[in-house]
Amino acid sequence: MQPAEDTLVGLAVALGIGLMIGTERERNKGRGANRAIAGVRTFALTSLAGAIALSIGEVALGLVGVVIGLLVVVGYQRTRRHDPGITTEVAQLITFLLGAWAIRQPGLAAGVAVIVAIVLASRTRLHTFIHRALNDVEVHDGLLLAAAALVILPLLPDKAVDPWDLINVRRLWVLVVLLMAINALGYVALRSLGSRLGLPIAGLVAGFVSSTATIGAMGARAKLHPTLRQGAVAGAALSSVATVLQLAIVIGLTNLSALRLLLWPLAATGLTAVAYGALFTLRSVRAPQEGDAVLGRPFDPRTALLFMVILGCALIGSTLLTRWFGSGGLLLAAVFAGFADAHAAAISAVSVAGAGDTAHLAAMGVLAGVASNTVSKCVAAFTLGDRQFALQILPGLLLLPAVAWTVFAIQQFWT
To answer: Quick one: 144 and 65 in the same domain?
Structure first.
């Protein structure tokens, strides 16, 4: 049996939930003969009824729930002629359940109640946004992204599905969702900030998720809308800044000795990426502002599937070589891990290294992974983008590993 103190807390939270949701409904129930049936008192009592019923027992909760449901149906029959919506009725049932939930988990129940109240209070803004701000293509692609992330992804097994233990369908599908989400982020930034600043900012942010996917997404947008090419190149270039920052964090958390060896090479590489990205950002800012005519659609699913195939092949190759050579082939394994992700290459290189000469080898493994990851970025740029996009981003991509290796070599020569 639950302690009396906990029950009192649950009852108090249930009362607060009912009053909060009921206050919002009271302000929208109207006046006169056509007013809604439930206001602040009804919602407060409904929430308390759920809490008291669960305190008595689950049978009581079921019986009271049936009674509340019947009362809600009767109320809807009375008001449906002038108000066919059922928002208040559904909110009342949710309030009953939240009141019961408050007895067992008051914190979670209160948090969900706040979300419910916000949704109810945002009626006008939500309706305006859906009917006026969104078009049919945006709604379709948003639902497609939601289905890919929330329906398909959880159903996929997180294990290899082939006899050779190579192909993990769930991880490959994550790449599809990732590219669609990054492209959607660029679309939102484009709508919100315009073509001059939206894509560079979106590229920098998305680079913390995956620079390779960001370059592919920016290339696809530049291919569909050539007028956005300068902003897309800027976003693609700035995504590498995020890669360098994350590399420093990952290496520092895994192996401080390797980070000391790579501090100056990473700093020089990061500054190079910033300079190259800033160059194209300046070009994008100076370019004419484009209107809604060049927005297109948030993402193209076919592009995401092609990206999955490209990186999937790289992941399979990396897995095979790591399996064949193990830690003894650290550099080779880092190279092939880098084809899929620079951070994976860094982790695989520094996690097996200690200090001294081994840390030196780990640092070389990180740089080798960065170089091979550059190959994947170039392939994504040429495959998903058009020729001009790829040729503009290519010098910056090749410059980054060149700077890193050059500074590392100079550092080793002087020490």
So the answer is: no
Residue 99: CB atoms within 10 Å:
30
Q: Are residues 180 and 298 in the same domain?
A: yes
How far apart are alpha carbons 125 and 373 in whole angstroms? 44
Number of domains comprising the chain: 2
Distance CA 52, CA 100 (A): 7
Among residues 365, 367, 358, which one has the least CA distance to residue 407?
367
Asked whether 208 and 242 are in contact (CB, 8 A), the reply is: yes
How far is the C-alpha of 42 from the C-alpha of 146, rounded, in Å? 36
Pick the more confident residue, 84 or 232. Answer: 232
Whole domain around residue 75: which residue ranges?
Answer: 4-130
pLDDT of 243 over the 70 cut:
yes
106 and 153 housed in the same domain: no
The predicted pLDDT at position 293 comes to 40
Paired tokens of 262: 């790579």
What does 326-386 look like in DSSP terms, one character per residue? GGGGHHHHHHHHHHH-HHHHHHHHHTT--STHHHHHHHHHHHHHHHHHHHHHHHHHHHHS-
Same domain? For 124 and 144 the reply is no
Residue 135 carries which DSSP code? -
CA distance 204 to 195: 15
In 3D space, the residue among 203, 243, 205 whose CA is nearest the CA of residue 370 turns out to be 243
Reading the block at residue 19, the tokens are 């009053």
Last residue of a domain, one of 130, 148, 171: 130
Cα–Cα distance, 376 to 370 (Å, whole number): 10
Question: Is there a single domain that holds both residue 235 and residue 167?
Answer: yes
**Whole-angstrom distance, CA of residue 174 vs CA of residue 341:** 13
360 and 330 assigned to the same domain:
yes
| Signed CA dihedral, 347, 352, 356, 362: sign only | negative
Identify which of 223, 232, 133 has the alpha carbon closest to the alpha carbon of residue 182: 232
**Is the pLDDT assigned to residue 158 strictly greater than 70?**
yes
Among 130, 149, 166, give the residue marking a domain's end. Answer: 130
Residue 245 sits in the same domain as residue 363: yes
123 and 196, same domain (yes or no)? no
Query: For the whole prediction, is pTM greater than 0.85?
Result: no
Q: Pick from 286, 309, 186: which is nearest to 238 by CA?
A: 186
